[in-house]
Design goal:
heterodimer; A: alpha/beta; 8-stranded mixed β-sheet; globular; B: alpha/beta; Rossmann fold; 4-stranded antiparallel β-sheet; 10 helices
Chain lengths: ~325, ~325
């Protein structure tokens, strides 16, 4: 049984002038000890998806349909009290701009001790402190910095502290939303290696959320490409990168400048992302798709299985490949 | 491409420091050296990339060139003319020749100005054209940055535009005076990949069409490779390496450049191994660094040589130089 199974998830927001369909019909599953990366551009619903998995949507957002089965239990059916026990203890999160997630007037060590003792009230404070010391060692912060305040830390160290906090209650699943976006490349690389190492050591499942396809490519076993609230391609990372099938995935890959190989002209994706207040019935990528035919506009795209570990939401792609 | 190797802009031993403000708890103010003796030549018609991490001083270089800041020491020459002493009309003339595109199009545009007003404002300030020609030039410039037909955009306000469209407006505003040099400070770091590729291609077209010289400031080596003819790598206010873009990326000589390239997440998954290994596992604890700025993190460094002396720029041929004793 997979650790996390999401079926047909729909997430909507009440906004001025109607309902914004931020996430539509997303299904995926995640096994223990595996990592899954969601990639997409701003507004594609990737952060909303991550928040919904922890039931932390803002007050105007709600899950309108679908199931989230975590560890055999339906997350949607839990009440707030039960949810509190899931959060941090079973599912924890590394937030976007984590440097702002720390309380500036409290010592970093104390903040993590607090997280631990809140969730295991029987634990003595000095035992919790010992745990924090071990955690800091794990994420590469020198032990003597435990009593410092956040402003005494560098950006990379704050990020490490937040990772330590996410690990504190030994969760089964970590949702990392843009964990390295604000960091310089060298530090980013160190943090990603750190997370990867910890994941292998403790067999934690991780969901990475990022706009940077190359970051996700290097840390995830599986990858999901999101566009305008939908998952459009999903599969084993190597397969998706070696033979991307969805026109959006292809376009996204060819709009990134590369370091090696031929210096090709970048081909930007023409146009803008669709308005999610009132999306068209057909494929959401229709307006920007180079291969679209008229029926794509009317009929919703369908999932096509390329291989047991690779599928794509495109009616055309499947047919082109003769599958 | 660069036809002649004439330098349009020269920076001579630029030194810039900032004072940190003392806080309530610690009232002493400190000097932070933002740029330490930077010398550069930017050639006419080239796209010159300045690559560095946050806090490296790359933005300061850009701000000095457009005269938003003043250096403590050093000189800047535009076409052989010293610019730091410019005043009055001369300064106005200078501003017409040198323009800047800022990082954040959400902050660099006045929310109360329509696209037409924002883009035509420089013409009015510099008293170019009459009412009729101003609108015509503005329309042309707006469509040249890919906002076409311009009639769809001229009456819109920034909040009615997407991030990519805003940045195009900011570019149009910089381009309308037909400047000779444009400083583009991370023009795409706020934008999505597909949109930033659009912006890159617009900059390339502009250069192609009117031979503008660009100083492209970025943290991304991949973006610099795509756009630039030459790249300079800057670290803690010091120039580390400078050379043709492909040379810097495929034959980097400075351990810092090598570490940057190693750290970049690669799309090509087969080549994700570390190649240079120039970064120390454990950072050296250095109290007061009198030597190479990268000394504490460098794997190839020598305790006495690199820790005590600042390595000078060394010519490595093919207009490639690096500030490293071991390059």
């Amino acid at each position: 049984m997979p650790l996390l199974e999401v079926k047909d998830l729909n997430i909507h927001y009440h906004v001025q002038g109607g309902i914004l369909k931020a996430v539509e019909g997303i299904s995926f599953s995640l096994e223990k000890g595996r990592s899954l990366g969601f990639v997409g551009e701003s507004g594609c619903g990737k952060t909303t998806l991550g928040m919904a998995l922890m039931r932390l949507l803002p007050s105007n957002g709600f899950i309108s349909d679908g199931q989230i089965i975590f560890d055999g239990e339906d997350i949607r059916k839990k009440n707030e009290e039960e949810m509190r026990k899931v959060r941090w203890q079973k599912i924890s999160m590394i937030f976007q701009a984590a440097m702002n997630a720390l309380n500036p007037v409290q010592r970093v060590g104390n903040q993590i001790v607090e997280a631990i003792t809140t969730h295991s009230p029987l634990l003595k404070k000095d035992e919790a402190f010992k745990m924090v010391k071990n955690l800091f060692q794990l994420v590469g912060i020198p032990g003597d910095r435990i009593k410092d305040y956040p402003h005494q830390y560098s950006g990379g160290m704050k990020q490490r502290a937040v990772i330590a906090m996410a690990l504190a209650c030994k969760p089964k699943l970590i949702i990392a939303d843009e964990p390295t976006t604000a960091l310089d490349v060298i530090v980013q690389d160190q943090i990603l290696q750190e997370i990867k190492g910890l994941q292998e050591e403790f067999q934690i499942s991780i969901i990475f959320i990022s706009h940077d396809i190359s970051v996700v490519a290097n840390v995830s076993h599986e990858i999901g490409i999101m566009y305008a609230g939908e998952l459009v391609e999903y599969g084993n990372t190597e397969e998706v990168f070696e033979s991307p099938r969805h026109p959006y995935t292809k376009a996204l890959l060819s709009s990134y400048p590369t370091l090696n190989g031929e210096k090709n002209m970048l081909t930007p994706i023409p146009g803008e992302t669709p308005n999610l207040m009132n999306p068209q019935t057909g494929c959401r990528f229709f307006d920007r798709c180079p291969n679209a035919i008229s029926s794509c506009k009317i009929n919703p795209a369908e999932w096509v299985t390329i291989s047991p570990t690779h599928k794509v939401l495109c009616y055309q792609c499947g047919r082109d490949c003769g599958i | 491409m660069v036809n002649n190797s004439e330098a349009i802009l020269k920076l001579h031993y630029i030194f810039k420091k900032y004072k940190t403000r003392g806080t309530f708890f610690g009232p002493q103010s400190k000097d932070v050296i933002a740029l330490n003796s930077i010398s550069l030549k930017i050639l006419k018609g080239e796209i010159f990339g300045l690559v560095g991490e946050s806090g490296s001083g790359k933005t300061t270089v850009g701000r000095l060139i457009v005269k938003l800041e003043k250096p403590e020491k050093g000189e800047i020459y535009l076409d052989g003319q010293e610019i730091l002493s410019l005043r009055g009309d001369q300064l106005k003339g200078f501003r017409r020749r040198v323009q800047m595109i800022f990082q954040d199009p959400y902050q660099s545009l006045n929310p109360q100005l329509s696209v037409l007003d924002a883009v035509s404002e420089p013409l009015i300030i510099h008293k170019i054209g009459n009412n009729h020609t101003i609108e015509e030039i503005t329309r042309k410039t707006i469509s040249s940055v890919g906002l076409s037909p311009p009639d769809d955009f001229i009456n819109r306000y920034p909040h009615q535009l997407s991030g990519g469209q805003r940045q195009r407006v900011a570019i149009a505003r910089a381009m309308i005076l037909k400047p000779e040099i444009v400083v583009a400070d991370e023009p795409t770091s706020m934008l999505d990949a597909s949109i930033s590729a659009q912006i890159f291609n617009i900059l390339l077209q502009m250069r192609e069409a009117s031979n503008i010289t660009f100083l492209f400031i970025t943290h991304s080596l991949a973006a610099a490779r795509y756009l630039c003819d030459r790249i300079a790598v800057i670290y803690k206010g010091n120039l580390m390496e400078i050379g043709p873009a492909e040379e810097i990326l495929h034959n980097p000589k400075h351990p810092y450049t090598q570490a940057l390239i190693d750290a970049l997440p690669k799309l090509d998954l087969s080549s994700s191994k570390k190649y240079y290994n120039s970064l120390r596992k454990e950072e050296r604890i250095v109290k007061e660094n009198a030597g190479c700025p990268f000394f504490s993190r460098c794997n190839v460094s020598d305790e006495t040589k690199c820790g005590q002396n600042i390595p000078p720029m060394k010519e490595l041929g093919k207009s490639h130089s690096a500030a490293c004793f071991y390059a």
